[in-house]
Amino acid sequence: MKRVNSTPRPGWQAYAESLGFKFHTIDGEPYWDESAYYQFSLRQIEQDLEDVTEELHAMALDLVPDILADEQKLDQLAIPADYRDALAESWQRGDPHLYGRMDLVYDGSGPAKLLELNYDTPTSLYETGFFQWVWLEDQLMRGELPAGADQFNSLQDKLEQAFANLTLPQPFHFTSVRESIEDKGTVDYLLDIATQSGVDSRYIALEDIGSLDGQYYDLQGEPITGLFKLYPWEFMLEEAFAEQVKTSQTLWLEPLWKLLLSNKGILPLLWQKHPGHPNLLESHFDSGKALDKGWLRKPLFSREGANIELVTADGKRLSEPGPYQDAPFIRQRLQPLPSFDGNYTLIGSWVVGDSAAGIGIREDNSLITKDSSRFLPHIILD
Amino acid sequence: MKRSKKAALVLMAPAATLLLAGCGEQQQEVHVFHNAEECAAFYHPPAECQAEFERASVLHTQVAPRYQDQFECEADFGAGQCETAPERHQSGSFFMPMMMGYMAGQMMNRGNLAGGQAQQLQQSTANNRSAVPTQPLYKSRDDRSTFRTAGNQAVASQPGVARVRPSAVQPQRAQLVRRGGFGEQAAVRQQAARQQANRQRSYGS
Fold first, then answer.
1. How is residue A328 annotated by DSSP?
2. B2 → closest Cβ in A120, A122, A150
3. pTM across the whole model
4. For residues A52 and A112, is the Cβ–Cβ distance under 8 A?
5. What residues of chain A lie within 8 A of the CB of B10, using their CB?
6. Which intervals carry biased composition (Polar residues) (chain B) (predicted)?
7. Is the ipTM of this complex over 0.90?
8. What are the residues whose beta carbons fall under 8 Å from the beta carbon of A186, sequence distance 6 or more?
9. Backbone dihedral region of B180: left (phi > 0), alpha (psi from -120 to 50 degrees) or beta?
10. What is the 3-state secondary structure (H, E, C) of A79-133?
């Protein structure tokens, strides 16, 4: 694994926009960054990332029945008591899941370590599955990359197969918060893929969803029987229309049981079940006392690095503010992100259904990866 | 190969924008009354006035805006100006404003009209019904003089003849559905993030 400087394609910004990538630059700062790429060997990809991703995914799914059978664990994960039955039913019915992303610390050698599971509303999907793929094909065509360079990125193929194989109610709706351009971009991408798979797919802004007699409705007044939501379950369950989750005849992507796995509390539970596993970091539910050196603290529910606090091995304290200070916390042994030319690198590894489906790389100038962290492409070349 | 065989987009690459403008639509003459008696007083055949009133009354139960309770309804239409709607929801009846008048797409005058006007009338009758369906009208709490359609389109400030764009006054079945029950946490977090000078771009992770 190495970081290779690269010349950005001239005029790539306008090209990106023509392909619907409207958030390639955010507040004047680059988000998509092709001034460098990461290079992996096939062995690194297959043994250290692909196999590990599928193993960690299986371990996580394996925990769901344990948690459902144990009220104390549900309490530790702060699952609202009112929705525990509905959640258990969604698991027992076998409500299907589409995708997830796990964040891994990996520097090219040694076991990758799981930082967290983003299993309810993972983003950076379009960048990974589409624009990174286009970049590789484009650079191969231009002769800027050695012939034979490949990429660990079957994300779009696998999503297309998943939409074709899941028997989804139709029309199938996709929703996101109206004002978020980035979330709309992600949802548009999924809607595009679903359409290509033959699913009758429609968008509705989250704020436009209607409710009547325990059922959700679209703007045409038709019941919403299937809904992909890029909006966290823990938010939805606190809002005015939460109650209808129990009664509405709606197939959800992701399903309600994903609330268990997108929860950072899954990390201590994984550690309890598999102590010392080479791909896990020691984790515990937080007692509230001061952090020791070499540990970090994060809320059960948080996104994009918000509300994370850490103390490095030599005692340096680092924290990221954010709007998620209201949930309980967990603590996790600090595995600092590797630094390449002064950039701290995080690997997001995707799962579609139950298969590993590719990676996306984020870089930041600090040890905490945030929503402003840059996205860099990668190649496989032996 | 560890990558997708293809990565196509069919919807995201935007096509040229189509502008659909509503200009050029011709206004049409309509007749607005509080009730059938007023209609007859404006020199129209009483039987026709009554028939159109009844037609509007039937539509009223289908198109009047619906509210979860009387309080919400009266906030828009004024105290004592609301009635129960035919539908029920989990915790009671829906409410809707009372019908305060009606609009008829076409009206014959009493007796026979002379000249061009009569010819025009025959022509429009020959083209079947008017482009404006006869329908109920309402008055809001804070504007008692204006007649409005169920879709809150103002059409006249007094009884008699008015002109409307037909597309703006097509009756729609009342929406029973409540909206806006999701998205609040996004707004709350956005506010909290703003106070910390820390933006919240996405609700993904």
1. -
2. A150
3. 0.80
4. yes
5. 192, 195-196
6. 124-133, 147-156
7. no
8. A123, A125, A126, A176, A230, B202, B204
9. left
10. CCHHHHHHHHHHHHCCCCCCEEEEEEECCCCCCCEEEEEECCCCCCHHHHHHHHH
A128-161, pLDDT tens digit by residue?
999 999 999 999 989 999 999 999 999 999 999 9
Taking only residues 146 to 175 of chain B, the set having a beta carbon closer than 8 angstroms to any beta carbon of chain A reads 173, 175
Nearest CA-CA partner of A94 in A65, A56, A53, A126: A65
Chain-centre distance for alpha carbon A305: 12
Pairing of strands B28-33, B101-104: antiparallel
Pairing state between β A172-176 and A226-229 = parallel
Distance, in Å, from the CA atom of A104 to the CA atom of A360, rounded to the nearest integer, reads 11
Is residue A157 within 8 A of residue B5, CB to CB? The reply is yes
Chain-centre distance for alpha carbon A286: 23
Quick one: DSSP state of residue A277? Answer: -
CA A143 to chain centre: 32
For the cut 90, the answer to whether the pLDDT of residue B21 exceeds it is: no
Q: Calculate the alpha carbon distances from B47 to A28, B50, B99 in Å.
A: 70, 5, 20
